[in-house]
Model the fold of this input.
Amino acid sequence: MTGAGKAVLLVVLVLLLPAAAAAYAGPGAGFAFLGSFLALLLAFLSSLLSLLTWPARQLYRAVRRRKAYRGARVKRVVIVGFDGMDPELAAKFMDEGKLPHLARLRDTGTFRPLQTTFPPISPVAWSSFLTGVNPGKHNIYDFLARDTGSYLPYLSSAQIRRPRRYLRLGPYALPLGRPQLKLLRKGRPFWHYLGEAGIFSSVIRVPITFPPEKFSGVLLSGMCVPDLKGSQGTFAFYTTGREGASARQGGTQIPLERDGNSFRSYLPGPENPLRPDKPTELRAPFRVRPEPGGQVQVELGRQNFTLHRGEYSDWVEVIFRAGWGIRLHGICRFYLKAVQPHLELYVTPLNIHPGKPALPISHPLTYSVYLAKLLGLYATLGLAEDTWALNEGVLTEEAFLRQCELLHEERERMFFDALEKTPRGLCVCVFDITDRVQHMFWRYLDGDGSAAPRPDAARWSGVIEQLYRRMDDLVGRLQARLENDALLLVLSDHGFKAFRRGVNLNSWLHQNGYLALRDGSAESGEWFKNVDWARTRAYALGLNGLYLNLRSRECAGVVNPGEEAAALKKELQDKLGVLRDPLNDRPVIREVFDSRVVYVGPYRDNAPDLIVGYQAGYRASWDSVQGRVTRAVLEDNTRAWSGDHCIDPRLVPGVLFSNRKLRCGQPSIIDVAPTVLGLFGLEPPPHMDGHPWALGDAG
Done:
């Protein structure tokens, strides 16, 4: 039996095991537990039929596969994505003899900087990777997009809405059907074309693949999969040191209340799906009992486990009871930060349960279940490494690194299982740890000059080097498992630079007369609260985007399309291009790009009007990203998040390694899709913007 056949059969067998229905709430979507149950039931029936017809289908696929590879130059392509791996750092560590396996790829195959996208942001770049087109054709320009009817932001990649119909039963409303899921990324991933030609693919945690699309292969969604609350990750922090619940950036602080010789509290869950007209947060109570020796006993439902200080729990299953026998399932990890003088406990965001997925997080639906049965519970949240918890001081550097390591170990197990099950075709996996650790530990590099705090600098100064060594070791173990005629590509979506100073474009626009506030105010709330749109000509949202308040496009637009808009764009480009930092008289912005020039395609009108390419060391400030006007245009970045890449894309290319010599001129991440299609003997679709690379000899 082929590896692909084994994978399909294992998924079918897993389905025959009992699995309870689960549910999920997205932002304003409510739950669709009935839709989840129906989805699992239909998946079970489909898999049963698949099992019965399996012999005939295997014979058909064997004939089809034999034809599929007739024109192929390779039988297997393996792509390893190291999100954010920087070519300058990689070259430095290779020259110092610290990355022997990557150095071997460089010496016998290919090592080149890999051009990224405008702007160089992960959802944008990975979308171009998987579609082979520029953002004007795939419609992703940032993590956030704006609603022209309200100026408010929404997640750019996916939309989750309530089911269309409900059955009213007294005060309760029973959803009839699934939540409405819509992938906002346009364009077809290149593995869809492979599947149509009979070539199987295993795709693990590639960003912007949620909700998953159907194709001939298996896929586990990556970046932008929400948590159980519908957010991109909301942690909980518990302490006996302060009274009352309070909001933290990226999370919530909740008190631990004494109850005899223990403390009790709750996990905050999603809103009750049975009461859409009266939103009520579901809660899962738990109890913590301190014990001698710096440890605690945690009781959650029927689960009871011990935690030592500085230790993470295994994944814990969480059940929220909505009523009418409806139970909602998630998973989380507990971390005991301190016992004295105050008990402090951190809990990860509530991940969608991979074994009971209420929303599809994989294709087929049962692939996530198969992985959970085979490898145990694992993170499903798209941004699982909790950078905000470190920014907020809830996690220490040591605790954050340990979390990253646990998540990376899960990803490795998935990847090597997929590699074993895909002896022919495509196997691709993206690892996030390189991006997250560099974001948070760049301040410890020599000469970084960051204003961010550097506690115990000597201890953490080698973290990024060790990270690159770990990725090099992964490449070495991978090479040992590959046949000589397999093509290996190791790549990243962008590089990295320091983030020392934040630039509030909205403050600059306000101070220069392009953005107006009501009542003569000098500041606004987040998401443009108190902005006077009738007197505003331009505004900034997200990491690199600047928009005109265009008449007939924005709901309160005042700038006329055509000559007036073009003149305003040129004026903003000229003025921002000479903006200098009063602290050191350095230029802040390298170039401001007109989106009509850098993008082509049917979705270009959804792009920001201008893309701001910052100089190294600068980036949009945290307030500017959130649509807030403050008094300061430039300010020190004092967060642990001290490295970034949301600048001029020419300053932060990614890396490209290969075990073959590639004739590729100036390679770009947009070239990967047509290259892989060509290697399997397929003609890339004419709408693809990338250029296929020519293949040389094996290394």
